Amino acid sequence: MKNKGLGRGLDAIFESEGAKFGDSAGKMEEISVSLIMPNPKQPRTAFDEDALEELADSIKTLGLIQPITVRKESDTRYIIISGERRWRASKLAGLETVPVFIREADDRTLHEMALVENIQRQDLNAMEIAISLNRLMEECGVTQDTVAARVGKKRSTVANYLRLLSLPPEVQAALKNDLISMGHAKAIAAMPEQARIPALKKVVRKGLSVRQTEELAKKLAEGKPEREVLADDELPDNYTRLVECCARIFGDDIKIKKNRSGGGKLTIGFSSDEDIAYFLDKLEGR
């Protein structure tokens, strides 16, 4: 999966917090792994065990290259701001101490940093990013403009992600499960509400490209009938079975087409008189 990290989000927060706290906002130290605790409001709750093992093996060989960012609660307790995966892997690798960057942050800032770090993960799909951006707005009480600045993206990009949350659950699930891309979802979001589920079915069944999906949205916007634009050409199962049975005798050049009145055509292709003779032999059981 390609990198979906959203820009300079944590840097933007660190810089703004540094302006408030001055040069004393952070310092590097080496502290015991046992003194470090996960952030209880960390949005990420699942960690890939195989990936953790791989990172642990790397840490055993090279050490922990990137420090963990923490907030000091007391002399015996530090809360992770970013780097819980590295902390978990360090414990697996058997490290007793790890390098940390200690920052001063209130609860609101701590929560905001955790949300932004989660958004910047490389393995998030579009729906997970949308949900995290929405949480950042609702739980930290910030606007779309502020969110865009925090994650280092244009406001229009943030708005496009947030728009995904207005899509029907079926479309959101298809996006989350990689049945469609964000481009598909954006095109479907531009369609009338009642057209979105039929459009999703057609896009998935036909394997339509983003451009083809945008064409569907364009036709609907032009006022063309939904029934015509979103007609599902998928044939019933018994039609498919008929084609398969015919193919056993007549080969693969079989076409079936059903019209709106219920009738249709079954076409058998052939390339020579020998094919006709072969078909007759098959039908007559010779």
What does this structure look like?
- The two termini are 56 Å apart.
- The strands form 2 sheets. Strands 1-5-3-4-2 form a 5-stranded mixed β-sheet. A two-stranded antiparallel sheet has the order 6-7.
- The radius of gyration is 29 Å and the shape is elongated.
- The model is unreliable at 1-25 (pLDDT under 50).
- The chain has helices spanning 9-21, 49-62, 84-92, 107-119, 126-140, 144-151, 155-163, 169-176, 182-189, 196-206, 210-221, 226-229, 237-250, 273-283; strands at residues 26-32, 36-37, 68-74, 77-82, 97-103, 254-258, 264-268.
- The chain folds into 3 domains: 9-151, Alpha-Beta Complex (Conserved hypothetical protein from pyrococcus furiosus pfu- 392566-001, ParB domain); 167-229, Arc Repressor Mutant, subunit A (Orthogonal Bundle); 237-283, no CATH class.
- The chain has 14 helices and 7 strands.
- The chain has 286 residues and is of the alpha/beta class.
